[in-house]
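Hi R.,

Here's the chain you asked about this morning:
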Amino acid sequence: AGFAIIMLATLIGPLGIGLYSAEGRVDNILPNIKQSAKIMMIIYTTYAVFGFFALWISGMPPFDAFNHSLTALATGGFSTRNGSIGEFNNLKIEVVTIFLMFLGATGFGIHYTLWKGNIKAFLKNGEPWLLFSTAFLMTLLVFPQTIGVLYKSPSEGFRKTLFQIVSAITGTGFSTVNLSEWHVFPLGLFVLTVLMMLGGMMDSTAGGLKQFRLFVLGKVIFYTIVDFVNPKRIVRKIEVWKGENVRYINPSMVKDMLVFFGIYFVAYFIGVFILLSYGYSLSDSMFEFSSAMNGVGLSIGLTAPDDPLGVIWTLTIGMFLGRLEFIVILYAIMRIIKDLRILISSSRR
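And here is the predicted structure, written out as tokens:
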């Protein structure tokens, strides 16, 4: 999805640049967006080929390996098996898939920084640290609670929990367990619900609020508190790294992020309320709509072909709005209105 936006922006010129920005992306790897698209194609293709061979060597049939490599990198989560990755019951395949999911949830600018060997710039980026540490800490929080309740041994609990945590936060949607069994473990479902909201990095194929926005707002809140308790007035420039570039946080950036957060949560709670009105529990409604709106695809059994039409439409609209990050919808509406005005004014002449 992310690469498709880049290619579309390349094809339609100046309008595409606006679409690129409206879709919530901030990375131009190179000054020319066409060059950026070529670099992204090379990086993405290389990862896809690597993923195919890694999964094949790990024991996955070639056809399945090809499809799962693509859907892992695209954080799409579609599988050729009804039981998703769990049907293979292969630790090596799960490890490779976790690696591919993290690659898919990593921003293209950060990939390019690593490809250039600029480790110093990479280490200054806050997004990777936030994504990986959140996944690790949430795994440590959740997996001990599963032992004796869902799984017999610590190793099995850690293996199952880690995979679901990574699948949720990267927005991929692969699974190795039947999540309907996690109803006996409310903490686990709540953590997965929140992680699906957080999402992957900016300029990746993942959905959600995005780690860059969370990192920026976290940094702003931290320094606001520091300045509040500090008796001396300090004029501070707060910087964040994005790929190889340094960006300074300004009021306009914070305002845009807060607007996005506001629209996001209004849409989310409307969707949850609609599902509640159909008789589903609060935890099920929150989980299922979080999965839909953040483009994940994990389910605890609520989503089914025989669902009421209102539920299906609610989840469908949630997927559509969340994938396009709301702002691009407003952008499209404004563009249509502008074109209609031009068309009407020209027809009157």
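One quick note: The chain has a mean pLDDT of 87.

Cheers,
M.
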